[in-house]
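Thread: "does anyone have the structure for this chain?"

Original post by V.I.:
We have the sequence but no experimental structure in hand. Need at least a predicted one for the grant figures.
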Amino acid sequence: MSTSTPKSKHPINPSFRFDNELRFKTLTLSSIYSSTAVFKVIQSGSEIASCALKLNTIPLGKGPIERTLNLSPPTAGPESVAEKNDKVDTPATIRLNLELKGPLRSEVLAVQTAFTTYFGLIDSLVEVTSPPATKVFNALNTKYAIIPALPVLITLACATPVVLGVCIVGLPFFLPIIMIVGIFAGLTASTGLVLYLSTPHGRKRVNKFSAPFVKNAVSSSVGQQFLYETGARPSPVTLAEHTIPQDMTGKLITSLALDFMGSCSYLIPGAGEAFDLFWAPFQTVCIQAMYDKSNPYIKYVSFAEEIIPFTDALPTASLGWVKEFGPIILENGIKKAEGTLSRYQRKDGKKA
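Reply from O.Q.:
Generated one for you, C-alpha coordinates below.
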Protein backbone atom coordinates (compact mmCIF):
# COMPACT_ATOMS: atom_id res chain seq x y z
CA MET A 1 0.00 0.00 0.00
CA SER A 2 1.15 3.53 -0.66
CA THR A 3 0.25 7.03 0.42
CA SER A 4 -0.61 10.04 -1.71
CA THR A 5 1.59 13.10 -2.22
CA PRO A 6 2.62 15.13 0.87
CA LYS A 7 -0.02 17.43 2.31
CA SER A 8 2.46 20.12 3.36
CA LYS A 9 6.19 20.89 3.58
CA HIS A 10 8.14 22.51 6.38
CA PRO A 11 9.12 26.08 5.40
CA ILE A 12 12.78 25.61 6.43
CA ASN A 13 13.64 21.95 7.01
CA PRO A 14 13.32 19.34 4.27
CA SER A 15 10.44 17.57 6.03
CA PHE A 16 7.00 16.66 4.73
CA ARG A 17 3.66 15.86 6.33
CA PHE A 18 1.38 13.04 5.21
CA ASP A 19 -2.09 12.70 6.69
CA ASN A 20 -2.86 9.36 5.09
CA GLU A 21 -4.26 6.47 7.11
CA LEU A 22 -3.41 2.96 5.96
CA ARG A 23 -5.52 0.08 7.27
CA PHE A 24 -4.97 -3.63 6.80
CA LYS A 25 -8.37 -5.06 7.76
CA THR A 26 -8.33 -8.30 5.82
CA LEU A 27 -5.26 -9.74 7.53
CA THR A 28 -5.53 -11.72 10.75
CA LEU A 29 -3.36 -10.81 13.72
CA SER A 30 -1.79 -14.27 13.92
CA SER A 31 -0.68 -14.09 10.27
CA ILE A 32 1.18 -10.77 10.57
CA TYR A 33 2.28 -10.62 14.25
CA SER A 34 5.72 -12.13 13.58
CA SER A 35 6.18 -10.20 10.31
CA THR A 36 8.25 -7.12 9.55
CA ALA A 37 6.76 -4.00 7.98
CA VAL A 38 8.99 -2.11 5.53
CA PHE A 39 8.38 1.59 4.91
CA LYS A 40 9.86 3.03 1.71
CA VAL A 41 10.21 6.63 0.58
CA ILE A 42 9.85 6.77 -3.21
CA GLN A 43 10.56 9.84 -5.30
CA SER A 44 10.03 9.96 -9.06
CA GLY A 45 9.55 6.20 -9.11
CA SER A 46 12.85 5.47 -7.34
CA GLU A 47 13.41 4.38 -3.75
CA ILE A 48 15.49 6.93 -1.87
CA ALA A 49 15.20 5.60 1.70
CA SER A 50 13.54 2.85 3.75
CA CYS A 51 13.18 1.45 7.25
CA ALA A 52 11.84 -1.72 8.83
CA LEU A 53 9.77 -2.38 11.95
CA LYS A 54 8.84 -5.67 13.59
CA LEU A 55 5.10 -5.68 14.16
CA ASN A 56 5.37 -7.62 17.44
CA THR A 57 7.10 -4.58 18.96
CA ILE A 58 3.84 -2.59 18.66
CA PRO A 59 1.84 -3.12 21.90
CA LEU A 60 -1.68 -4.41 21.50
CA GLY A 61 -4.62 -2.81 23.28
CA LYS A 62 -2.93 0.55 23.92
CA GLY A 63 -4.29 2.61 21.06
CA PRO A 64 -2.12 4.55 18.59
CA ILE A 65 1.51 5.07 19.58
CA GLU A 66 4.08 7.32 17.95
CA ARG A 67 7.35 5.88 16.64
CA THR A 68 10.24 7.72 15.02
CA LEU A 69 12.35 5.47 12.77
CA ASN A 70 15.67 6.18 11.10
CA LEU A 71 15.60 5.98 7.32
CA SER A 72 18.45 4.26 5.52
CA PRO A 73 19.39 4.91 1.89
CA PRO A 74 19.27 1.96 -0.49
CA THR A 75 22.49 0.03 -0.88
CA ALA A 76 24.46 1.12 -3.89
CA GLY A 77 27.97 0.91 -5.26
CA PRO A 78 31.11 2.31 -3.59
CA GLU A 79 30.94 6.01 -2.76
CA SER A 80 33.64 8.58 -3.37
CA VAL A 81 35.23 10.51 -0.51
CA ALA A 82 33.47 13.70 -1.63
CA GLU A 83 30.05 12.02 -1.52
CA LYS A 84 30.73 10.74 1.99
CA ASN A 85 31.77 14.20 3.17
CA ASP A 86 28.65 15.78 1.68
CA LYS A 87 26.41 13.54 3.80
CA VAL A 88 24.67 15.03 6.81
CA ASP A 89 25.55 13.41 10.16
CA THR A 90 21.92 13.40 11.31
CA PRO A 91 20.01 10.61 9.54
CA ALA A 92 16.64 11.19 7.95
CA THR A 93 13.70 9.97 10.01
CA ILE A 94 10.06 9.11 9.55
CA ARG A 95 7.47 9.61 12.29
CA LEU A 96 4.52 7.24 12.35
CA ASN A 97 1.37 6.77 14.40
CA LEU A 98 0.93 3.02 14.66
CA GLU A 99 -1.87 0.90 16.09
CA LEU A 100 -2.08 -2.88 16.10
CA LYS A 101 -5.46 -4.43 16.87
CA GLY A 102 -6.59 -8.00 17.31
CA PRO A 103 -9.08 -10.18 19.17
CA LEU A 104 -8.51 -11.55 22.66
CA ARG A 105 -8.16 -15.28 23.05
CA SER A 106 -11.46 -17.05 23.68
CA GLU A 107 -10.59 -18.12 27.22
CA VAL A 108 -9.36 -14.62 28.11
CA LEU A 109 -12.54 -13.10 26.69
CA ALA A 110 -14.65 -15.56 28.70
CA VAL A 111 -12.82 -14.66 31.93
CA GLN A 112 -13.15 -10.94 31.17
CA THR A 113 -16.89 -11.34 30.57
CA ALA A 114 -17.32 -13.32 33.79
CA PHE A 115 -15.49 -10.71 35.87
CA THR A 116 -17.46 -7.88 34.25
CA THR A 117 -20.73 -9.62 35.11
CA TYR A 118 -19.56 -10.40 38.66
CA PHE A 119 -18.40 -6.85 39.37
CA GLY A 120 -21.64 -5.47 37.91
CA LEU A 121 -23.63 -7.67 40.31
CA ILE A 122 -21.48 -6.56 43.28
CA ASP A 123 -21.89 -2.89 42.31
CA SER A 124 -25.67 -3.25 42.16
CA LEU A 125 -25.70 -4.94 45.59
CA VAL A 126 -23.54 -2.18 47.03
CA GLU A 127 -25.93 0.46 45.72
CA VAL A 128 -28.87 -1.30 47.39
CA THR A 129 -27.22 -2.14 50.74
CA SER A 130 -24.98 0.89 51.20
CA PRO A 131 -27.60 3.40 52.49
CA PRO A 132 -29.06 1.09 55.20
CA ALA A 133 -25.58 -0.03 56.27
CA THR A 134 -24.45 3.58 56.53
CA LYS A 135 -27.43 4.42 58.75
CA VAL A 136 -26.72 1.46 61.06
CA PHE A 137 -23.03 2.37 61.28
CA ASN A 138 -23.82 6.00 62.10
CA ALA A 139 -26.26 4.86 64.78
CA LEU A 140 -23.69 2.55 66.37
CA ASN A 141 -20.82 5.00 66.05
CA THR A 142 -21.88 6.98 69.12
CA LYS A 143 -20.93 6.97 72.77
CA TYR A 144 -24.28 5.40 73.65
CA ALA A 145 -23.46 2.25 71.66
CA ILE A 146 -21.10 1.18 74.47
CA ILE A 147 -24.08 0.58 76.79
CA PRO A 148 -25.49 -2.58 75.06
CA ALA A 149 -21.96 -3.74 74.14
CA LEU A 150 -20.62 -3.50 77.72
CA PRO A 151 -22.07 -6.83 79.00
CA VAL A 152 -20.66 -8.65 75.95
CA LEU A 153 -17.20 -7.15 76.47
CA ILE A 154 -17.19 -8.04 80.19
CA THR A 155 -18.26 -11.61 79.42
CA LEU A 156 -15.52 -12.01 76.80
CA ALA A 157 -12.86 -10.61 79.14
CA CYS A 158 -13.81 -13.03 81.94
CA ALA A 159 -14.55 -16.11 79.84
CA THR A 160 -11.59 -16.02 77.46
CA PRO A 161 -8.95 -17.26 80.00
CA VAL A 162 -11.33 -20.01 81.16
CA VAL A 163 -12.02 -21.18 77.61
CA LEU A 164 -8.28 -21.16 76.78
CA GLY A 165 -7.47 -23.16 79.89
CA VAL A 166 -10.11 -25.77 79.11
CA CYS A 167 -8.85 -26.01 75.52
CA ILE A 168 -5.26 -26.51 76.67
CA VAL A 169 -6.20 -29.22 79.20
CA GLY A 170 -8.48 -31.03 76.78
CA LEU A 171 -6.38 -30.36 73.66
CA PRO A 172 -6.44 -33.95 72.32
CA PHE A 173 -10.23 -34.00 72.58
CA PHE A 174 -10.83 -30.45 71.35
CA LEU A 175 -8.24 -30.51 68.53
CA PRO A 176 -10.67 -31.71 65.80
CA ILE A 177 -13.24 -29.12 66.93
CA ILE A 178 -10.59 -26.38 66.97
CA MET A 179 -9.47 -27.36 63.46
CA ILE A 180 -13.05 -27.32 62.15
CA VAL A 181 -13.74 -23.95 63.77
CA GLY A 182 -10.42 -22.59 62.43
CA ILE A 183 -11.16 -23.77 58.90
CA PHE A 184 -14.67 -22.29 59.08
CA ALA A 185 -13.31 -18.99 60.42
CA GLY A 186 -10.65 -18.91 57.71
CA LEU A 187 -13.17 -19.55 54.96
CA THR A 188 -15.49 -16.91 56.37
CA ALA A 189 -12.71 -14.34 56.60
CA SER A 190 -11.49 -15.17 53.08
CA THR A 191 -15.01 -14.83 51.69
CA GLY A 192 -15.46 -11.48 53.42
CA LEU A 193 -12.11 -10.26 52.11
CA VAL A 194 -12.96 -11.31 48.54
CA LEU A 195 -16.34 -9.58 48.75
CA TYR A 196 -14.75 -6.39 50.07
CA LEU A 197 -12.07 -6.38 47.37
CA SER A 198 -14.84 -6.84 44.79
CA THR A 199 -16.56 -3.59 45.78
CA PRO A 200 -15.65 -0.34 43.96
CA HIS A 201 -13.69 0.87 47.01
CA GLY A 202 -11.84 -2.45 47.31
CA ARG A 203 -11.03 -2.54 43.58
CA LYS A 204 -9.48 0.93 43.85
CA ARG A 205 -7.20 -0.29 46.64
CA VAL A 206 -6.19 -3.38 44.68
CA ASN A 207 -5.62 -1.37 41.51
CA LYS A 208 -3.40 1.10 43.39
CA PHE A 209 -0.89 -1.62 44.26
CA SER A 210 -1.32 -4.02 41.34
CA ALA A 211 -1.48 -1.54 38.43
CA PRO A 212 2.32 -1.30 37.86
CA PHE A 213 2.76 -5.09 37.91
CA VAL A 214 -0.24 -5.70 35.66
CA LYS A 215 0.93 -3.02 33.23
CA ASN A 216 4.39 -4.58 32.93
CA ALA A 217 2.96 -8.09 32.55
CA VAL A 218 0.41 -7.11 29.89
CA SER A 219 2.89 -5.04 27.87
CA SER A 220 5.55 -7.77 27.82
CA SER A 221 5.91 -9.98 24.75
CA VAL A 222 4.76 -13.08 26.63
CA GLY A 223 1.80 -11.20 28.10
CA GLN A 224 0.73 -10.04 24.64
CA GLN A 225 0.95 -13.59 23.27
CA PHE A 226 -1.00 -14.91 26.26
CA LEU A 227 -3.87 -12.40 25.91
CA TYR A 228 -4.28 -11.96 22.16
CA GLU A 229 -4.67 -14.27 19.15
CA THR A 230 -1.09 -13.83 18.00
CA GLY A 231 -0.45 -17.46 17.16
CA ALA A 232 0.67 -20.34 19.36
CA ARG A 233 0.02 -19.94 23.08
CA PRO A 234 3.05 -19.56 25.35
CA SER A 235 3.79 -22.68 27.39
CA PRO A 236 3.33 -22.75 31.19
CA VAL A 237 7.12 -22.85 31.60
CA THR A 238 7.50 -19.71 29.46
CA LEU A 239 4.88 -17.92 31.54
CA ALA A 240 6.65 -18.99 34.74
CA GLU A 241 10.02 -17.80 33.43
CA HIS A 242 8.63 -14.31 32.88
CA THR A 243 6.76 -14.29 36.22
CA ILE A 244 9.20 -15.79 38.75
CA PRO A 245 12.20 -13.62 39.75
CA GLN A 246 15.44 -14.87 38.20
CA ASP A 247 17.91 -13.21 40.60
CA MET A 248 19.56 -15.08 43.47
CA THR A 249 17.44 -13.60 46.27
CA GLY A 250 14.17 -13.88 44.34
CA LYS A 251 14.84 -17.53 43.51
CA LEU A 252 15.69 -18.28 47.15
CA ILE A 253 12.43 -16.77 48.44
CA THR A 254 10.42 -18.57 45.74
CA SER A 255 12.16 -21.89 46.48
CA LEU A 256 11.50 -21.62 50.23
CA ALA A 257 7.85 -20.80 49.54
CA LEU A 258 7.50 -23.81 47.21
CA ASP A 259 9.06 -26.18 49.75
CA PHE A 260 6.88 -24.74 52.53
CA MET A 261 3.69 -25.26 50.53
CA GLY A 262 4.79 -28.76 49.53
CA SER A 263 5.36 -29.76 53.17
CA CYS A 264 1.97 -28.36 54.24
CA SER A 265 0.38 -31.60 53.08
CA TYR A 266 1.49 -33.13 56.39
CA LEU A 267 -0.95 -30.86 58.24
CA ILE A 268 -3.94 -32.94 57.13
CA PRO A 269 -2.94 -36.61 56.70
CA GLY A 270 -4.62 -38.24 53.72
CA ALA A 271 -6.21 -35.09 52.37
CA GLY A 272 -2.77 -33.50 52.01
CA GLU A 273 -1.64 -36.30 49.69
CA ALA A 274 -4.66 -35.62 47.49
CA PHE A 275 -3.62 -31.95 47.37
CA ASP A 276 -0.24 -33.10 45.99
CA LEU A 277 -1.97 -34.29 42.82
CA PHE A 278 -2.68 -30.64 41.98
CA TRP A 279 0.45 -29.16 43.56
CA ALA A 280 3.01 -31.47 41.89
CA PRO A 281 2.56 -30.15 38.31
CA PHE A 282 2.56 -26.53 39.50
CA GLN A 283 5.75 -26.94 41.55
CA THR A 284 7.46 -28.85 38.72
CA VAL A 285 6.71 -26.07 36.23
CA CYS A 286 8.12 -23.45 38.63
CA ILE A 287 11.28 -25.46 39.32
CA GLN A 288 11.79 -26.11 35.60
CA ALA A 289 11.48 -22.38 34.89
CA MET A 290 14.07 -21.53 37.58
CA TYR A 291 16.65 -24.32 37.43
CA ASP A 292 16.30 -26.22 34.16
CA LYS A 293 19.45 -24.63 32.72
CA SER A 294 21.67 -25.39 35.71
CA ASN A 295 20.10 -28.76 36.63
CA PRO A 296 17.95 -30.33 33.87
CA TYR A 297 16.98 -33.37 35.98
CA ILE A 298 15.66 -31.63 39.09
CA LYS A 299 12.17 -31.23 37.61
CA TYR A 300 11.78 -35.01 37.57
CA VAL A 301 12.88 -35.25 41.19
CA SER A 302 10.39 -32.51 42.10
CA PHE A 303 7.47 -34.28 40.45
CA ALA A 304 8.40 -37.65 42.00
CA GLU A 305 8.77 -36.34 45.57
CA GLU A 306 5.38 -34.62 45.39
CA ILE A 307 3.53 -37.57 43.86
CA ILE A 308 5.07 -40.33 46.01
CA PRO A 309 3.40 -40.36 49.45
CA PHE A 310 5.33 -39.19 52.53
CA THR A 311 8.26 -37.71 50.57
CA ASP A 312 7.16 -34.06 50.64
CA ALA A 313 9.74 -33.14 53.27
CA LEU A 314 12.49 -33.24 50.62
CA PRO A 315 13.31 -29.56 49.85
CA THR A 316 13.73 -30.01 46.10
CA ALA A 317 13.46 -26.31 45.19
CA SER A 318 15.97 -25.26 47.86
CA LEU A 319 18.37 -27.99 46.70
CA GLY A 320 18.10 -26.60 43.18
CA TRP A 321 19.02 -23.15 44.51
CA VAL A 322 22.04 -24.61 46.35
CA LYS A 323 23.13 -26.44 43.19
CA GLU A 324 23.01 -23.23 41.12
CA PHE A 325 24.27 -20.62 43.55
CA GLY A 326 26.18 -22.69 46.12
CA PRO A 327 29.43 -22.91 44.10
CA ILE A 328 29.28 -19.18 43.33
CA ILE A 329 28.81 -18.25 46.99
CA LEU A 330 31.56 -20.66 48.05
CA GLU A 331 33.98 -19.31 45.44
CA ASN A 332 33.29 -15.70 46.43
CA GLY A 333 33.72 -16.61 50.10
CA ILE A 334 37.10 -18.25 49.41
CA LYS A 335 38.27 -15.21 47.44
CA LYS A 336 37.24 -12.84 50.26
CA ALA A 337 38.95 -15.05 52.84
CA GLU A 338 42.14 -15.18 50.77
CA GLY A 339 42.05 -11.39 50.33
CA THR A 340 41.56 -10.82 54.06
CA LEU A 341 44.35 -13.28 54.88
CA SER A 342 46.76 -11.61 52.45
CA ARG A 343 46.03 -8.18 53.97
CA TYR A 344 46.80 -9.47 57.47
CA GLN A 345 50.00 -11.10 56.20
CA ARG A 346 51.13 -7.82 54.63
CA LYS A 347 50.40 -5.96 57.87
CA ASP A 348 52.39 -8.55 59.87
CA GLY A 349 55.28 -8.26 57.43
CA LYS A 350 55.40 -4.49 57.80
CA LYS A 351 55.38 -4.77 61.61
CA ALA A 352 58.24 -7.26 61.51
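V.I.: this helps a lot. Confidence is low (pLDDT under 50) at residues 79-85.
O.Q.: and Residues 185 and 191 are 10 Å apart (CA to CA).
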